[in-house]
Structure formats: C-alpha cells, structure tokens
TrEMBL record:
Name this protein carries in UniProt: Isochorismatase hydrolase
Organism this protein belongs to: Chloropicon primus
Protein's UniProt keywords contain Hydrolase: yes
The keyword Ribonucleoprotein is annotated on this UniProt entry: no
SUPFAM superfamilies: Isochorismatase-like hydrolases (SSF52499)
InterPro entries linked: Isochorismatase-like_dom (IPR000868), Isochorismatase-like_hydrls (IPR050272), Isochorismatase-like_sf (IPR036380)
GO MF annotation list: hydrolase activity
Length: 226
C-alpha cells in the first residue's frame, strides 16, 4: 500500500501541460537541444525498402515523414543540433550472433540495414546536412548502447533530447528510456514515429512515453517549445 500511495504521487507528462517538471516551465534552448533521428533509412522509409510495408500504414496515419522533415528544417534553422542514428550491419551480419533472436533475428533474416546497400542508407528526404552529426556504431535497439551518442551530446552541451523515428515501441522507446536514465530532458514526438501497427503505436505513445518523456506532436514542439 505504501508503494501504491507513493506511486500515485509521481507526476508524468500528459501532453497537455499537467505534470510538467518545474525546470521545464520554459521553452527549450536551441543551443542545448538535439533532435535525434532514429533509423530514417530507406529500408523503413521508402517504397522497396525491406521493412517498409510493415510501417507504411502507421507512417501514413501519423504523417511522420513530412512532420519530421518540417521539424528538422525549423530546428536546424533555430540552431538545434541534428543527430542521425542509423543502424547498419556488414553484409554477413558478423556484428550479430549466429542465431540472433527477437527483432534482430528478423532484421538478419530479411537482409535489412546492410551498410553497403541502398536500404541501409539514410533516406534522401532527411539526408545529413553540414553541421549535422551521424552517430557511429548502432547495432542494436538503444541509440546509446554501442554508439558514441552520449559522447556527442555531452561534447555539444546538449541537455534536451527530442526523439523521432522507428520503431515507436522499439528503438525510439529504448533510446527514450536510456536518455531519461542518463539525465537528459526527453521529448518524444508522437507524430514523428511509426510502429508496425496502430495498436502498438497507441500503446507506446499513450502509456509508456509519458513515464519517461514529454510526449507531444511536432506542432506543439515548434509552437510552444522552440
């Protein structure tokens, strides 16, 4: 019962201003803000991509690609750091075990995200520009694990991390949790991510995201936070 009462006192961000931490009662400072783009690669984003059919429906429902392009354009102009976090593998997937399980098994079986192929490249619509940072070493779900992401953010004096990408309930969620644990102020863009189904999308953005971030739409970010 004591645990239950303690839990009731925990405030989480509900997307409408309630529960906002006191330190966040102001807009995000662009010079201390990074927009982290997770796996906007051809295999996910584009027709003909090995995993595109799985996310196409939610991409269309949320308009996530166009929304992300708009956020990146405006955030870059305001002085935010744009960080790309692709996942890539060698042709023989030597970075993984001989028999990976879970979602990485599907990646290997489907031949996705090979660094040498078109599918592993960042999509043209969000191609890195001068001043952007491309994270190195992402081989799993969490954008921080096995990469230089934390180093890059801290070297650039980043305090606020804005997340979008694929999959809503996988790599975006894993990166969100780690960013939260590492002490960053985390924003998740609910209309700049996509899952394999509407049910998974809804569960993540409505139930999980508020526990570890401030979920909001791209319009809310641009109108109220930057």
């Amino acid at each position: 019962m004591q645990c239950a009462r303690a839990w009731k006192g925990v405030r989480v961000w509900d997307g409408r201003g309630r529960g906002r931490p006191r330190a966040w009662m102001h807009a995000l400072e662009p010079s201390k803000t990074a927009v982290v783009l997770i796996e906007y690669q051809n295999d996910f984003v584009c027709e003909g991509g090995k995993l595109h059919d799985g996310v196409k429906g939610v991409m269309e429902t949320t308009g996530m690609l166009g929304n992300t392009m708009n956020v990146v354009e405006k955030a870059r102009a305001k002085g935010c750091t744009i960080v790309h976090a692709p996942i890539t593998f060698s042709d023989d997937y030597r970075e993984l075990s001989d028999e990976p399980y879970g979602i990485l098994a599907g990646v290997k079986e489907g031949g996705a995200f090979k660094a040498s192929e078109w599918g592993g490249k960042i999509c043209d619509d969000l191609a890195p520009q001068d001043g952007d940072v491309v994270v190195e070493g992402k081989r799993g779900l969490d954008g921080f694990a096995s990469t230089n992401l934390d180093f890059v953010l801290r070297q650039n004096n980043i305090e606020n991390v804005v997340l979008g990408g694929f999959l809503t309930n996988c790599c975006v969620e894993s990166t969100m949790r780690s960013a939260y644990e590492k002490g960053y102020n985390v924003v998740t863009l609910t209309d700049c991510c996509a899952a394999l189904s509407e049910e998974e999308q809804k569960a993540s953005v409505e139930k999980t995201y508020p526990m570890f971030s401030r979920p909001m739409t791209s319009s809310e970010l641009l109108e109220n936070e930057l």
